[in-house]
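QA checklist item 7 of 12: single-chain prediction sanity check.
[x] sequence parsed
[x] length recorded as 318
[x] structure emitted
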Amino acid sequence: MNRVWNKAIALSRFISSVQKRRVLTLPIYITNRCTSRCKTCNIWKIKEKEDLDKDVIESLLCDNEIRDDVEFILTGGDFLLHPECREVVSLFKGKNLRIFSNGILADKLISLVREEGVRYVSVSLDGRPETNKYIRGVDTFKNVERIITELKDFTHIEIEYTISKWNTKEDLRFVVDFVKRHKIELSVGYYSRVEYFDAEEDATGLYSVSDLIASDYHSLYPLWANGKFNLPCYSIFVRPVIKSNGDVELCEARQVKLGNLYKRSFSEIWRDERTEEVIRSFSKCNGCWLNCQRTSDLGLTYIPRRLGLYFHKDVKKE
């Protein structure tokens, strides 16, 4: 009952925030430097390296639009390669912070999490050790195990698994057993083309996992991939993205620039009339199946509609 109640509260908060265009989650790509050589991402091939200035991040955290209940996400590239990584993380003390890691710089990550009191850590693992190495370009499996062993009593750890053409259901089964054994959480998302990562692979035709994981996000993927399910995007009303060059962008998938933090404050960018026009113009995009965005959209539209609660009329199933 508590779980249902918590979901109802979260849905109510999401609806209110969408209506007011109030930021709930803020991913910040603090650097485009990376230690991996992933097949799902080509950011490591970019020659011009960018690091978001600590002063810019500090100003962002003081902005009136950034409330105390915002969930912050630090990522990259490999965010640990930022020249002032520790100083940047220190700015988020006492805040709802999640950091993403590929597990390569394990010693640095473990030290940082313990000393800075990071609340949430997401670590990538895309299958069995040999599969994960093939996808990531680096063997990280033992590092991932060590990170879990040394940090699970200090912070909340979640494994991030991406369904792609380079892994299989057997890889997912392995990871499901792995997280059960270590008593940690698992997030499973479908690969989607993210323009920032400069990967050209198609996001359709991937294997379904609805028989392994019971959720609307996973069961509806085949319909979406075949162009038979249209879902409006409301996450863009509450989840802008900050890039390592200071750009404020519409979402994770598209490089639609709203403004730049080196030139204007976040409030000025976010409350600009043009920003509202851009957000509304992309609200029916339906161009990705990223779990960080589409699970919220499903919660606001498809699930209530399925229950007979018609908050919105934009969900269309062919």
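[x] summary fact logged: The first strand starts at residue 25 and ends at 29.
[ ] second reviewer sign-off
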